[in-house]
Design a protein that fits this description.
Layout (H helix, E strand, L loop, with lengths): L3 E7 L4 H13 L3 E6 L4 H10 L4 H6 L3 E5 H9 L24 H11 L10 E6 L3 H4 L4 H18 L3 E7 L7 H13 L2 E6 L11 E7 L1 H4 L6 E9 L4 E4 L9
Parallel strand pairs: 1-5, 1-6, 2-3, 2-4, 4-5
Antiparallel strand pairs: 6-7, 7-8, 8-9
Family: Belongs to the ELP6 family.
Pathway: tRNA modification; 5-methoxycarbonylmethyl-2-thiouridine-tRNA biosynthesis
Keywords: Cytoplasm, Nucleus, tRNA processing
Length: about 250
């Protein structure tokens, strides 16, 4: 409880981690606010069904609050957004100047606010992919402020968890993106870093996973614990193994 987990991918697609955490927290009986900026609801629902979770049913019973970023952006830009009185669009910053992510934070805060009828075990904020906000025009400071307020509200006040996916690619020289990614790394309790193989594509080894447990955040003088595995993504699960020890090699 109260942990901030950063999912980071470089030269590969780390979305399988998002699907894992989404199904994991829903099965655990947690209240989940999912800010999905990368894919449609039907995409996440199809993958979740393979993992044994029904997102539509979770939405209907109030366990899952889903923000479909792609649809909201189009509705807002083309003037089709149906605003409720006193409730602006979570992505209102697209039509404002200067950019302000306060409406998005208010959406998260209201979505995870406890009610008397709630019987969920704990609140969870899941974001896929945070760096999309930079592509939509938000400044790095606005994005980092948004995450800071979410951490204070969800992790500190509600004792819940936050899981955020960010995409990084040092080769692109995107300074704003790298600033956000590096800043989040310094504040994370756990970093799961998926990387593509330096040697290129391999059908039996899809990538490398670096697991960084930030022990230095908890105790001064402690070294972070780093574990490195390679992995292969299958239809319904992911197989992890030590580097160079895949079944194909052995």
């Amino acid at each position: 409880q109260g942990k901030f987990t950063l999912l980071r991918d470089t030269r590969t697609d780390g979305s399988f981690l998002v699907h894992h955490f989404l199904s994991f927290y829903l099965r655990a009986g947690c209240k989940v606010c999912f800010v999905a900026l990368l894919q449609s609801f039907s995409h996440y629902n199809i993958v979740a069904q393979k993992l044994g979770v029904n997102l539509t049913a979770a939405k209907e019973r109030g366990q899952l609050v889903f923000l479909e970023g792609l649809k909201s952006c189009l509705d807002l830009l083309f003037g089709e957004e149906e605003e409720q009185p006193g409730q602006p669009s979570p992505l209102q910053f697209l039509s404002e100047s200067p950019f302000d992510l306060r409406a998005l934070f208010d959406f998260v805060r209201v979505s995870l606010s406890a009610t008397d009828s709630d019987s969920w075990k704990g609140p969870v904020l899941l974001v896929d992919d945070l760096t999309v906000l930079l592509s939509l025009g938000a400044t790095p400071v606005a994005v980092l402020d948004f995450i800071h307020y979410c951490r204070v509200h969800v992790c500190s006040q509600l004792k819940g968890n936050i899981v955020v996916l960010v995409h990084s690619n040092e080769d692109l020289e995107d300074e704003e993106n790298e600033l956000v990614v590096n800043s989040l790394c310094h504040h994370s309790d756990l970093i799961l870093w998926a990387e593509g193989l330096a040697t290129g594509f391999c059908k039996d080894v899809h990538g490398q996973m670096k697991i960084i447990k930030r022990l230095s955040l908890q105790q001064v003088g402690e070294q972070d614990l780093v574990q490195v595995y390679q992995y292969k993504i299958q239809e319904r699960n992911v197989t992890f193994f030590a580097r160079g020890l895949s079944a194909a090699v052995l």
